[in-house]
Amino acid sequence: MLNWAKQQLANVAGTQEPEYGPDAIQTVSQQAETTPYTELTRDDLKWTALQSTCVETQTFYAFAEDGTVGMAQLIYNNLAGLRTTTQFTTKIFYPDGRAPLWTSEQVDDHQFANDKTCFHSDKASIDLLSDGETYHIKSQASPKTKVDIKVKRAAPSFKVGQDGTSYYGTDPQKPWGSMRHVFWPRCDVEGDFVTKDGTLKMTGRGVFIHALQGMKPHHLAARWNFVSFHSSKYSAVMMEYTTPPSYGTTTVNMGGIVSGDKLIYAGARNSATHTASKHDAEVDWPEPTALAFKWNEGGEGAHAELAISMSSRADRIDVMAEVPGFVKQLVGAAAGTRPYIYQVS
């Protein structure tokens, strides 16, 4: 009861949680020991839309044939059951090295379809079509980037373990938080991103991820690694996060490999490693310069490795842009939270 009360205080105030230890998280990796993965049904694609503190997202990445990479994301955010907002964000990475184009706009008057598989608002919509295999994403939320794309599943989808969810709390029967991810690892994309410079044809490959952070995000995870790889035959996706010290600095990894139209591996036996880094003098932070991703480490069947050497980054995101630098250092030291995201495409 005391631990629950401490957690509730931290959840309301946003302060650092006590150190409960690694036993206070029941990871999806534990589920994967007996059930490596489960294929998705339409029910798995429903918005949860919790009426308590949470951040829920549907994120679509499009890798166009000309090398352009586009992201469209809908964010549902609930603050302590008191205020709910929905935000539509886009990002475009250009193959010629231009600075990425980022937009993020609040959308209002949101509502979900009766079965909660579709989202509508005044300026953006995400519809799961009747075939259950295609999303239609449209947005005029920002004058800088308008979106009209279709994302069609091209291989089996999955969630790691039985439900794709890690549960947080000292009583496994009554968790006080959760983290969930489900994946469409290989998709066909068609449609456009329209900017002031013209229309970008986004025909190519893609990946879709539906995530739910059922608690304050910085209490759930302090560090993240994510990769999505596509070639003419293969696709691979990996999502890894590490908890703050409150939950034992525990690392959870989910990933899958596709060959053609077949899912040949999905599970939790994966790793993401920063094999080299340099000092980013501009923000006084370590910037990764080389990474190694491994799927199905030590397991039977399909196995993949991806090594990335980054001569330059595509972008650096300051997730606490309005916070003074010394505060970021204190947050990093106290909670283990990393205030910068480095992206490469």
Task: Tell me what you see in this structure.
It is a single chain. It is built from 4 helices and 25 strands. It is mainly β. The strands form 5 sheets. Strands 1, 3, 4, 5, 6, 7, 8, 9, 10, 11, 13, 14, 15 and 16 form a 14-stranded antiparallel beta sheet that branches. Strand 18 and strand 19 form a beta hairpin. 35% of the residues are buried. About 4% of the residues have low confidence.
Question: Which structural class is indicated by helix and strand composition?
Answer: mainly beta
Shape: globular
- Poorly predicted tracts of residues: 322-336
**End-to-end Cα distance:** 46 Å
Could you tell me the number of beta strands? 25
Estimated radius of gyration: 20 Å
Round the mean pLDDT to the nearest integer and report it: 87
Task: Give the helices and strands as they follow along the chain.
Answer: HEHEEEEEEEEEEEEEEEHEEEEEEEEHE
Beta-strand percent range: over 45%
Q: Into which percent range does the helicity of residues fall?
A: under 10%
* Count of helical regions: 4
Q: How is the main sheet built? A: 14 strands, antiparallel
Which SSEs are present, and which pair or pack?
Layout: H1 2-13, E1 25-26, H2 28-32, E2 37-39, E3 54-64, E4 69-79, E5 83-93, E6 101-107, E7 111-112, E8 119-120, E9 124-128, E10 134-139, E11 145-153, E12 158-160, E13 165-168, E14 177-195, E15 198-201, E16 204-213, H3 217-220, E17 223-230, E18 234-242, E19 251-259, E20 262-267, E21 271-280, E22 285-295, E23 304-309, E24 315-318, H4 325-335, E25 340-343
Antiparallel strand pairs: 1-13, 2-12, 3-4, 3-16, 4-5, 5-6, 7-8, 8-9, 9-10, 10-11, 11-14, 13-14, 14-15, 14-16, 17-18, 18-19, 19-20, 21-22, 22-23, 24-25
